[in-house]
Amino acid sequence: MNITINLLKHFVEMYAIGAYVLIFLGVIIEGEVVVILAGIFAHLGSINIFFAFIATILGGFTKSTLGYTAGYYLEKHHSKRTFIQRTESKIAYFLPKFKEKPFWSIFISRFFILGLNWFTLIYSGYKKINLRTYINAEACSLFLWSIIMLALGYIFSYTALSVGRDVRKFLGLLVLFFIAFFILERIVSFILEILTGVGEESNIEQK
Question: What's the helix, strand, coil split of the chain in %, to 5?
């Protein structure tokens, strides 16, 4: 049986509730890919973009709560763990101004390289960052990030379909898009390191 874009569309449409659950869980783990895919299938008409947005927000809220709670627990019971020391060094390297500007450090961590957001959330709980500051930073960051990721998927789907409706071409463009996305993410992170002198500050602190 030949797989077509319409077949993919109808398959996801049949299991739309499961798709929303996967979006929710995917955001908790690390959600760029799953939210972009949600934007793609929203454009195809398989899922409702409003419900996809709600699932993304709920997943992000759950992740924020789990991260802060885990950090708070670790500080109380396992402050000498190697994991905590690694977390502190990672935060100090990428977000050297965390203690001075926790709001912006928490806000920007969601847009940085994969994995950093989880470290930042846990570290926020570990350092007992003011809850109001934490919630405001996470809410603003999550709202903006959700819109951007869904929009990227939606725009990609629209652009790819305008090129052609062949499923192989569509999937090929999708793979290229994700490769370009992650390369760009790494480049932006590298540029920010240079502009902010992150590496230098980290080295100075270590000395």
Answer: 85, 0, 15
